Amino acid sequence: MTTIYLTRHGETEENLAQILQGHLPGTLTPNGIRQADELKAQLKDIRFDAIVCSDLQRAKDTTRIIAQAHDATPVIETTLLRERDWGALTGASIPSIDRSKPFPEDTETVEQMFERAHRFLEWADAEFHGQRVLAVAHGLMNRVILAALEGKTIQDIKPFLNAEYRIINIQERTGNYSSSLDTQATN
Fold first, then answer.
1. CA distances from 95 to 10, 66, 104 (A)
2. What is the number of alpha carbons within 13 Å of residue 100 lying toward its C-beta?
3. Rounded (10°) CA dihedral 27, 67, 165, 50
């Protein structure tokens, strides 16, 4: 069984400003750094075989803090864990978005996100089969991963708080996934 501690990055300035970050780098706030430090303390006694993270700066910065307690553990960046690509909406104020209109054509679709989530789960199980992995990503992408894992919609999955983790277990390499209900938040 492959065990993944699926984690959201710490709070960013863009979170506070209600900016649709998408593929923007994002800057951790002092509170986001504190959240990452608290998560590092919570996870310090867990032996991870690997740490994987989104290649976006806010996830990398959170990972760097957490990884201080796991200095012998390799860190691998992957685009599979990136947040949704909002295309032309990237950087927009969330309250100003007219949700009655379709998203621009260059926005990553929900179907594309689910396909990426399945690719992540398959890659993680193949690369780290039978191991314990910390994965640092983004709120919406984490929800998509759990929805793909559980055969649900994004709306069925409770949003991730900043620096929250949930433990998922991949039972076998055939794509038979299951998730646990273990959730931790640092806010």
1. 21, 32, 17
2. 0
3. 120
44 vs 186, higher pLDDT: 44
Task: Indicate whether 8 pLDDT > 90.
Answer: yes
Three-class SS string for the chain? CEEEEEEECCCEHHHHCCECCCCCCCCECHHHHHHHHHHHHHHCCCCCCEEEEECCHHHHHHHHHHHHHHCCCCEEEEHHHCCCCCHHHCCCEHHHCCCCCCCCCCCCCHHHHHHHHHHHHHHHHHHCCCCEEEEEECHHHHHHHHHHHHCCCHHHCCCCCCCCEEEEEECCCCCCEEEEEEEECCC
Q: Select from 78, 45, 97 the least CA-distant residue to 145.
A: 78
What pLDDT sits at residue 173? 45
* Cα–Cα separations (whole angstroms), residue 44 to 37, 140, 153, 186: 10, 26, 33, 14
Q: Which tokens belong to 112? A: 């594309």
CB 113 within 8 A of CB 84: yes
**Which pLDDT value is given to residue 171?**
78
